[in-house]
Amino acid sequence: MRWTTLLAVLMIALGCWSLPATAASSDGDVPTSAQSGRITDTDTWRAIRQGEAGFISGQPEQRGQLIQSEGEAWRAARNGKLAWYGGLALVGVVLAIGAFYLIRGKIMIEGGPSGRQILRFNKMERIGHWLTAGSFLVLAVTGLNLMFGRWLLEPIIGKTLFSWLAWAGKWLHNLSGFVFIAGLVVIFVLWAKDNLWDRYDLGWILHGGGLLKKGDHPPAAKFNFGQKTQFWMVIVIGTLVSSTGVSLLFPFTFADMAGMQVMHLIHAALAVLMVMAILGHIYIGTIGMEGASTAVTTGYVDRKWASLHHSVWVEETEAKEPKAAE
């Protein structure tokens, strides 16, 4: 009986001794995981959601970041304003070109072709043109598909076929980028000197390039002001698009995740601007002007066409030709 009484007294004493701690806990001072030194699943996922990076052996530190909240802002900008305004701008350019064609019509060789040919671009110049132009067409088609295809093409051909098309397009896009860079280098070396400002450019501007009314043909050297503007646009914007594209092909080499997201937006926006400008170039070089397309296919153009649109160049070229013996 005495042992039972002693055990009861000890239990009551221990209970009274632990009472303050229990009372403190009941007042809301419950030890947290941080205070107790323990890390719970809640703490772990909160840190991940806030962008804290973990550790991955043999990998850059940034790759340990599972969730990057800024990615939502990038996605909203890319799929929102950029896609919306870029799409509207492209449609607007196409409609403007169509309206110009209906109003102005095809620019014909007045009096008809002469039948005499003159060499405009040699073989190396044509190779440089098609390296740049051909790769750009592939880049434009595959890039536009990556930006707009999910909304425009996928509902028509289905998810499976579109996924394969997007996958193949991505690889074509990446490989064509290096061909485009090579083309930029070639045309810069070949044509930069001929695309500098000269005394004929102001007159070309004042006459609207002779595009606004028939019979108006301001003198121009090998390239007129419109072609020069197109050339430097391709060189400058093409270089920016290429550099941002290369940085995206090699993640974390030139920038962190946030930097790559910014470069992607710049890459896409400038690419849309290039497509808009090249649409006008393609129009003039094909259905918009008689006799222009052969310059980059066979290399030769009709002399009458050349004398109308590049009269100074024709005079300079023929002055260099050896005179026939009388």
TrEMBL record:
<dbReference type="GO" id="GO:0008863">
    <property type="term" value="F:formate dehydrogenase (NAD+) activity"/>
</dbReference>
<keyword id="KW-1133">Transmembrane helix</keyword>
<feature type="domain" description="Cytochrome b561 bacterial/Ni-hydrogenase">
    <location>
        <begin position="120"/>
        <end position="290"/>
    </location>
</feature>
<dbReference type="GO" id="GO:0009061">
    <property type="term" value="P:anaerobic respiration"/>
</dbReference>
<keyword id="KW-0408">Iron</keyword>
<feature type="transmembrane region" description="Helical">
    <location>
        <begin position="82"/>
        <end position="103"/>
    </location>
</feature>
<dbReference type="GO" id="GO:0005886">
    <property type="term" value="C:plasma membrane"/>
</dbReference>
<keyword id="KW-0349">Heme</keyword>
<keyword id="KW-0813">Transport</keyword>
<feature type="transmembrane region" description="Helical">
    <location>
        <begin position="130"/>
        <end position="151"/>
    </location>
</feature>
<dbReference type="GO" id="GO:0009326">
    <property type="term" value="C:formate dehydrogenase complex"/>
</dbReference>
<dbReference type="GO" id="GO:0046872">
    <property type="term" value="F:metal ion binding"/>
</dbReference>
<comment type="similarity">
    <text>Belongs to the formate dehydrogenase gamma subunit family.</text>
</comment>
<feature type="transmembrane region" description="Helical">
    <location>
        <begin position="231"/>
        <end position="252"/>
    </location>
</feature>
<keyword id="KW-0249">Electron transport</keyword>
<dbReference type="GO" id="GO:0015944">
    <property type="term" value="P:formate oxidation"/>
</dbReference>
<dbReference type="InterPro" id="IPR051817">
    <property type="entry name" value="FDH_cytochrome_b556_subunit"/>
</dbReference>
<dbReference type="Pfam" id="PF01292">
    <property type="entry name" value="Ni_hydr_CYTB"/>
</dbReference>
<keyword id="KW-0732">Signal</keyword>
<dbReference type="GO" id="GO:0036397">
    <property type="term" value="F:formate dehydrogenase (quinone) activity"/>
</dbReference>
<keyword id="KW-1003">Cell membrane</keyword>
<dbReference type="GO" id="GO:0022904">
    <property type="term" value="P:respiratory electron transport chain"/>
</dbReference>
<dbReference type="GO" id="GO:0009055">
    <property type="term" value="F:electron transfer activity"/>
</dbReference>
<dbReference type="InterPro" id="IPR006471">
    <property type="entry name" value="Formate_DH_gsu"/>
</dbReference>
<keyword id="KW-0812">Transmembrane</keyword>
<dbReference type="InterPro" id="IPR011577">
    <property type="entry name" value="Cyt_b561_bac/Ni-Hgenase"/>
</dbReference>
<keyword id="KW-0479">Metal-binding</keyword>
<keyword id="KW-0472">Membrane</keyword>
<feature type="transmembrane region" description="Helical">
    <location>
        <begin position="171"/>
        <end position="192"/>
    </location>
</feature>
<feature type="signal peptide">
    <location>
        <begin position="1"/>
        <end position="23"/>
    </location>
</feature>
<dbReference type="InterPro" id="IPR016174">
    <property type="entry name" value="Di-haem_cyt_TM"/>
</dbReference>
<protein>
    <submittedName>
        <fullName>Formate dehydrogenase subunit gamma</fullName>
    </submittedName>
</protein>
<feature type="transmembrane region" description="Helical">
    <location>
        <begin position="264"/>
        <end position="284"/>
    </location>
</feature>
